Amino acid sequence: MQVIKKDGRLQSLDVIKIRNSILGASIDSDTIINEADLKVLSSRVLKVLQGIRGDDGITSTYEIFAIIIETLNKDGFNDIAMSYLGYKSNNDR
Description:
Residues 1-93 form the ATP-cone domain. By secondary structure, the chain is mainly alpha-helical. The protein has helices spanning 15-28, 35-53, 61-74, 78-91; strands at residues 2-4, 10-12, 58-60. 66% of the residues lie in helices and 10% in strands. The radius of gyration is 13 Å and the shape is globular. The termini are far apart.
C-alpha cells in the first residue's frame, strides 16, 4: 500500500510509523500502553486501511490519521486519541 504524503510524494506504508505515532501520543498523555496493545492497534489500523483501499491501494496521511483516532476511541484509548490530535498538530509545525 502506498501513502500520499502532505507534500504529494508517494511512500510505502510503514506500520512501524503508525505504531510509533501512537506510542508518542501515549507518552504525551502520560498513559501507559504495552507492546501488545500497540501491536493490536496498529494491526487494526492496517486492516481498516486494507478494507478501504485494498492491499495495493493508495491512501493519504489524512485518512491514516482519522483511522488511528477512530481506532483509539473504539478501543477505549480516549486519552491517547486526544493527545494524538495534539501530537500530530505539534509535529506538523
